[in-house]
UniProtKB/TrEMBL annotation:
Organism name: Sorghum bicolor (Sorghum)
Record-listed E.C. numbers: 2.1.2.2
A GO term, aspect molecular function: phosphoribosylglycinamide formyltransferase activity
GO cellular component annotations of the record: chloroplast; cytoplasm
Protein name, UniProt field: Phosphoribosylglycinamide formyltransferase, chloroplastic
Length: 296
Protein backbone atom coordinates (compact mmCIF):
# COMPACT_ATOMS: atom_id res chain seq x y z
CA UNK A 1 0.00 0.00 0.00
CA UNK A 2 1.48 3.41 -0.96
CA UNK A 3 2.17 5.94 1.80
CA UNK A 4 -0.29 8.80 2.05
CA UNK A 5 2.39 11.39 3.10
CA UNK A 6 5.78 11.92 1.50
CA UNK A 7 8.78 10.47 3.37
CA UNK A 8 6.48 8.32 5.59
CA UNK A 9 7.56 4.65 5.81
CA UNK A 10 5.49 2.41 3.54
CA UNK A 11 2.65 0.44 5.11
CA UNK A 12 2.97 -3.34 4.98
CA UNK A 13 1.46 -4.99 1.92
CA UNK A 14 -1.85 -6.78 2.36
CA UNK A 15 -1.33 -10.50 2.81
CA UNK A 16 -3.55 -12.97 1.07
CA UNK A 17 -4.22 -16.49 2.26
CA UNK A 18 -6.08 -19.49 0.86
CA UNK A 19 -5.26 -18.44 -2.71
CA UNK A 20 -7.56 -15.41 -2.70
CA UNK A 21 -8.40 -14.64 -6.33
CA UNK A 22 -9.94 -11.30 -7.32
CA UNK A 23 -13.14 -11.23 -9.31
CA UNK A 24 -15.18 -8.11 -10.15
CA UNK A 25 -13.57 -4.69 -9.49
CA UNK A 26 -15.30 -2.40 -7.02
CA UNK A 27 -16.72 0.84 -8.34
CA UNK A 28 -16.02 3.65 -5.88
CA UNK A 29 -16.81 7.38 -5.82
CA UNK A 30 -14.04 9.99 -6.16
CA UNK A 31 -11.86 9.76 -3.03
CA UNK A 32 -11.76 12.52 -0.45
CA UNK A 33 -8.37 13.99 0.55
CA UNK A 34 -8.10 11.85 3.67
CA UNK A 35 -8.74 8.69 1.72
CA UNK A 36 -5.19 8.53 0.40
CA UNK A 37 -4.32 5.94 3.02
CA UNK A 38 -6.67 3.47 1.37
CA UNK A 39 -5.93 4.45 -2.27
CA UNK A 40 -4.38 1.15 -3.18
CA UNK A 41 -7.25 -0.71 -1.52
CA UNK A 42 -9.57 1.02 -3.99
CA UNK A 43 -7.75 -0.78 -6.78
CA UNK A 44 -8.38 -4.13 -5.18
CA UNK A 45 -11.17 -6.37 -6.32
CA UNK A 46 -14.76 -6.15 -5.31
CA UNK A 47 -14.59 -9.72 -4.13
CA UNK A 48 -12.19 -12.58 -3.75
CA UNK A 49 -12.70 -16.30 -3.86
CA UNK A 50 -11.29 -18.53 -1.14
CA UNK A 51 -9.87 -21.59 -2.86
CA UNK A 52 -8.08 -24.36 -0.96
CA UNK A 53 -4.83 -25.42 -2.58
CA UNK A 54 -4.69 -28.96 -3.94
CA UNK A 55 -2.96 -31.44 -1.68
CA UNK A 56 -1.35 -34.78 -2.38
CA UNK A 57 -2.06 -37.93 -0.36
CA UNK A 58 -3.70 -38.72 1.97
CA UNK A 59 -6.96 -38.42 0.10
CA UNK A 60 -10.09 -37.17 1.87
CA UNK A 61 -12.61 -39.86 2.69
CA UNK A 62 -15.94 -38.56 1.45
CA UNK A 63 -19.43 -39.82 0.87
CA UNK A 64 -21.91 -38.45 -1.62
CA UNK A 65 -25.12 -36.87 -0.34
CA UNK A 66 -27.32 -39.61 -1.79
CA UNK A 67 -29.55 -42.25 -0.19
CA UNK A 68 -28.31 -45.82 0.05
CA UNK A 69 -29.63 -49.31 0.76
CA UNK A 70 -33.11 -49.87 -0.62
CA UNK A 71 -33.15 -46.33 -1.98
CA UNK A 72 -29.95 -46.73 -4.03
CA UNK A 73 -31.72 -47.87 -7.20
CA UNK A 74 -34.20 -45.00 -6.99
CA UNK A 75 -31.34 -42.55 -6.43
CA UNK A 76 -29.50 -43.86 -9.47
CA UNK A 77 -32.62 -43.53 -11.62
CA UNK A 78 -33.14 -39.96 -10.40
CA UNK A 79 -29.54 -38.87 -10.91
CA UNK A 80 -30.07 -37.65 -14.48
CA UNK A 81 -33.40 -35.89 -14.01
CA UNK A 82 -33.90 -32.22 -13.29
CA UNK A 83 -34.36 -31.56 -9.59
CA UNK A 84 -37.52 -29.92 -8.29
CA UNK A 85 -36.99 -26.86 -6.09
CA UNK A 86 -39.16 -24.98 -3.60
CA UNK A 87 -37.97 -21.46 -2.72
CA UNK A 88 -38.95 -19.55 0.43
CA UNK A 89 -38.91 -15.71 0.39
CA UNK A 90 -40.14 -12.79 2.50
CA UNK A 91 -39.14 -9.84 0.34
CA UNK A 92 -38.09 -8.85 -3.15
CA UNK A 93 -36.56 -12.25 -3.80
CA UNK A 94 -33.53 -11.21 -5.87
CA UNK A 95 -31.74 -14.48 -5.05
CA UNK A 96 -34.90 -16.38 -6.02
CA UNK A 97 -34.90 -14.56 -9.36
CA UNK A 98 -31.21 -15.34 -9.91
CA UNK A 99 -31.83 -19.05 -9.28
CA UNK A 100 -34.95 -19.12 -11.47
CA UNK A 101 -33.17 -17.35 -14.33
CA UNK A 102 -30.19 -19.72 -14.01
CA UNK A 103 -32.56 -22.68 -14.19
CA UNK A 104 -34.23 -21.27 -17.31
CA UNK A 105 -30.80 -20.63 -18.84
CA UNK A 106 -29.49 -24.12 -18.15
CA UNK A 107 -26.92 -23.21 -15.48
CA UNK A 108 -28.99 -25.02 -12.83
CA UNK A 109 -30.21 -28.56 -13.61
CA UNK A 110 -33.51 -28.00 -11.81
CA UNK A 111 -36.83 -26.18 -11.86
CA UNK A 112 -38.54 -23.96 -9.30
CA UNK A 113 -41.92 -25.66 -8.83
CA UNK A 114 -43.21 -23.69 -5.81
CA UNK A 115 -42.69 -20.38 -4.03
CA UNK A 116 -43.42 -20.20 -0.28
CA UNK A 117 -43.80 -16.84 1.46
CA UNK A 118 -45.09 -15.36 4.69
CA UNK A 119 -45.88 -12.11 2.83
CA UNK A 120 -48.18 -12.80 -0.13
CA UNK A 121 -47.79 -9.27 -1.48
CA UNK A 122 -43.97 -9.22 -1.55
CA UNK A 123 -41.94 -8.77 -4.71
CA UNK A 124 -40.81 -12.38 -4.76
CA UNK A 125 -44.41 -13.62 -4.73
CA UNK A 126 -45.38 -11.23 -7.53
CA UNK A 127 -42.45 -12.43 -9.63
CA UNK A 128 -43.49 -16.05 -9.07
CA UNK A 129 -47.07 -15.40 -10.13
CA UNK A 130 -45.93 -13.57 -13.25
CA UNK A 131 -43.84 -16.61 -14.19
CA UNK A 132 -46.51 -19.21 -13.54
CA UNK A 133 -44.95 -20.54 -10.32
CA UNK A 134 -47.48 -21.59 -7.64
CA UNK A 135 -47.37 -19.43 -4.50
CA UNK A 136 -47.99 -20.94 -1.06
CA UNK A 137 -48.56 -18.71 1.97
CA UNK A 138 -46.96 -20.00 5.17
CA UNK A 139 -47.48 -19.67 8.06
CA UNK A 140 -50.98 -18.48 8.84
CA UNK A 141 -50.97 -15.13 10.66
CA UNK A 142 -53.08 -12.02 11.25
CA UNK A 143 -51.52 -10.39 8.19
CA UNK A 144 -51.86 -13.59 6.16
CA UNK A 145 -55.01 -15.41 7.28
CA UNK A 146 -54.93 -17.53 4.13
CA UNK A 147 -51.72 -19.18 5.34
CA UNK A 148 -51.51 -22.96 5.57
CA UNK A 149 -50.46 -25.23 8.45
CA UNK A 150 -47.21 -27.18 8.73
CA UNK A 151 -49.00 -30.40 7.81
CA UNK A 152 -50.55 -28.78 4.75
CA UNK A 153 -47.19 -27.34 3.73
CA UNK A 154 -45.50 -30.73 3.91
CA UNK A 155 -48.32 -32.41 2.01
CA UNK A 156 -48.15 -29.77 -0.71
CA UNK A 157 -44.37 -30.04 -1.09
CA UNK A 158 -44.69 -33.81 -1.32
CA UNK A 159 -47.38 -33.33 -3.97
CA UNK A 160 -44.95 -31.24 -6.01
CA UNK A 161 -42.24 -33.94 -5.52
CA UNK A 162 -39.84 -31.31 -4.16
CA UNK A 163 -36.22 -32.48 -3.92
CA UNK A 164 -34.62 -29.42 -2.31
CA UNK A 165 -35.81 -26.41 -0.31
CA UNK A 166 -34.00 -23.08 -0.79
CA UNK A 167 -34.40 -20.20 1.66
CA UNK A 168 -33.78 -16.88 -0.10
CA UNK A 169 -34.51 -14.07 2.34
CA UNK A 170 -37.17 -15.95 4.30
CA UNK A 171 -37.25 -14.33 7.74
CA UNK A 172 -39.23 -16.93 9.66
CA UNK A 173 -37.66 -19.86 11.50
CA UNK A 174 -38.76 -22.90 9.54
CA UNK A 175 -40.46 -25.68 11.53
CA UNK A 176 -38.50 -28.69 12.75
CA UNK A 177 -40.89 -30.94 10.83
CA UNK A 178 -39.64 -29.45 7.56
CA UNK A 179 -35.99 -29.98 8.54
CA UNK A 180 -36.76 -33.60 9.41
CA UNK A 181 -38.65 -34.09 6.13
CA UNK A 182 -35.70 -32.78 4.08
CA UNK A 183 -32.46 -33.79 5.86
CA UNK A 184 -29.35 -32.27 4.25
CA UNK A 185 -31.64 -30.90 1.55
CA UNK A 186 -32.39 -27.33 2.73
CA UNK A 187 -30.07 -24.42 1.92
CA UNK A 188 -30.07 -20.83 3.16
CA UNK A 189 -28.00 -17.78 2.22
CA UNK A 190 -26.89 -15.27 4.86
CA UNK A 191 -25.22 -11.89 4.17
CA UNK A 192 -22.19 -12.37 6.45
CA UNK A 193 -19.28 -14.75 6.85
CA UNK A 194 -20.84 -17.15 9.32
CA UNK A 195 -20.50 -17.92 12.15
CA UNK A 196 -19.88 -14.17 12.58
CA UNK A 197 -22.91 -11.85 12.63
CA UNK A 198 -25.49 -14.63 12.45
CA UNK A 199 -28.41 -15.81 14.53
CA UNK A 200 -31.78 -14.40 15.51
CA UNK A 201 -32.11 -10.70 14.75
CA UNK A 202 -29.23 -10.59 12.27
CA UNK A 203 -30.74 -9.96 8.85
CA UNK A 204 -30.64 -7.33 6.13
CA UNK A 205 -29.09 -3.98 6.99
CA UNK A 206 -28.70 -5.01 10.63
CA UNK A 207 -25.96 -7.42 9.56
CA UNK A 208 -24.04 -4.82 7.56
CA UNK A 209 -24.32 -2.19 10.29
CA UNK A 210 -22.89 -4.67 12.80
CA UNK A 211 -20.04 -5.64 10.46
CA UNK A 212 -18.99 -2.00 9.95
CA UNK A 213 -19.34 -1.16 13.65
CA UNK A 214 -17.14 -4.12 14.60
CA UNK A 215 -14.22 -2.92 12.50
CA UNK A 216 -14.16 -6.15 10.47
CA UNK A 217 -12.03 -5.82 7.33
CA UNK A 218 -13.95 -8.43 5.34
CA UNK A 219 -17.51 -9.63 4.94
CA UNK A 220 -19.47 -11.64 2.41
CA UNK A 221 -22.29 -14.15 1.91
CA UNK A 222 -22.48 -17.69 3.28
CA UNK A 223 -24.50 -20.55 1.80
CA UNK A 224 -25.21 -23.14 4.48
CA UNK A 225 -27.39 -26.15 5.17
CA UNK A 226 -30.30 -25.53 7.50
CA UNK A 227 -30.97 -27.10 10.89
CA UNK A 228 -33.55 -26.25 13.56
CA UNK A 229 -31.85 -22.97 14.55
CA UNK A 230 -30.97 -19.64 12.94
CA UNK A 231 -27.76 -19.73 10.86
CA UNK A 232 -26.11 -22.66 12.65
CA UNK A 233 -26.10 -25.30 9.88
CA UNK A 234 -22.93 -26.48 8.15
CA UNK A 235 -21.32 -24.02 5.73
CA UNK A 236 -21.30 -25.08 2.07
CA UNK A 237 -19.85 -22.01 0.29
CA UNK A 238 -18.71 -18.46 0.96
CA UNK A 239 -17.50 -15.38 -0.90
CA UNK A 240 -15.35 -12.60 0.56
CA UNK A 241 -15.67 -8.86 -0.06
CA UNK A 242 -13.60 -6.08 1.52
CA UNK A 243 -15.03 -3.63 4.01
CA UNK A 244 -13.77 -0.16 3.17
CA UNK A 245 -12.83 2.54 5.69
CA UNK A 246 -15.67 4.82 4.61
CA UNK A 247 -18.28 2.12 3.95
CA UNK A 248 -21.97 2.54 4.66
CA UNK A 249 -24.41 -0.33 5.26
CA UNK A 250 -25.97 0.39 1.86
CA UNK A 251 -22.69 0.25 -0.06
CA UNK A 252 -21.55 -2.90 1.71
CA UNK A 253 -24.95 -4.54 1.21
CA UNK A 254 -24.79 -3.90 -2.54
CA UNK A 255 -21.37 -5.56 -2.87
CA UNK A 256 -22.40 -8.54 -0.75
CA UNK A 257 -25.67 -8.98 -2.68
CA UNK A 258 -23.77 -9.06 -5.98
CA UNK A 259 -21.78 -12.00 -4.66
CA UNK A 260 -24.89 -13.67 -3.20
CA UNK A 261 -26.43 -13.99 -6.64
CA UNK A 262 -23.36 -15.81 -7.92
CA UNK A 263 -22.44 -18.08 -5.02
CA UNK A 264 -26.02 -19.21 -4.36
CA UNK A 265 -26.55 -20.18 -7.99
CA UNK A 266 -23.26 -22.12 -7.98
CA UNK A 267 -24.20 -23.94 -4.77
CA UNK A 268 -27.68 -24.83 -6.06
CA UNK A 269 -26.17 -26.02 -9.34
CA UNK A 270 -23.83 -28.33 -7.41
CA UNK A 271 -26.73 -29.63 -5.34
CA UNK A 272 -28.82 -30.38 -8.42
CA UNK A 273 -25.87 -32.14 -10.10
CA UNK A 274 -25.16 -34.33 -7.05
CA UNK A 275 -21.74 -32.69 -6.61
CA UNK A 276 -22.16 -32.06 -2.86
CA UNK A 277 -20.25 -34.61 -0.79
CA UNK A 278 -19.91 -34.92 2.97
CA UNK A 279 -16.59 -35.35 4.73
CA UNK A 280 -16.48 -37.92 7.53
CA UNK A 281 -16.56 -35.14 10.13
CA UNK A 282 -19.86 -33.86 8.72
CA UNK A 283 -18.52 -30.96 6.63
CA UNK A 284 -20.12 -30.57 3.16
CA UNK A 285 -17.90 -29.88 0.15
CA UNK A 286 -18.60 -29.07 -3.49
CA UNK A 287 -16.93 -31.28 -6.06
CA UNK A 288 -15.53 -29.43 -9.07
CA UNK A 289 -17.57 -29.95 -12.26
CA UNK A 290 -14.31 -30.15 -14.23
CA UNK A 291 -12.12 -32.34 -12.02
CA UNK A 292 -13.86 -34.74 -9.61
CA UNK A 293 -10.68 -34.90 -7.48
CA UNK A 294 -10.89 -31.17 -6.66
CA UNK A 295 -13.24 -29.73 -4.04
CA UNK A 296 -14.28 -26.09 -4.04
Amino acid sequence: MEAAVAHAPPAPALRRSLALRPTTPAVRPDPKPWQGVVRSARRQSNAVRCEPSRRPEPRLRLRAAQPGGADAAAAAAAAGRRKRLAVFVSGGGSNFRAIHEAALGGAVHGDVVALVTDKPGCGGAEYARSNGIPVLVFPKSKSAPEGISVAQLLDTLRGYSVDFVLLAGYLKLIPAELVQEYPKSILNIHPSLLPAFGGKGFYGSKVHKAVIASGARYSGPTVHFVDEHYDTGKTLAQRVVPVFADDTPELLAARVLHEEHQVYVEAVAALCEDRVVWREDGVPLIRSPINPDVYL
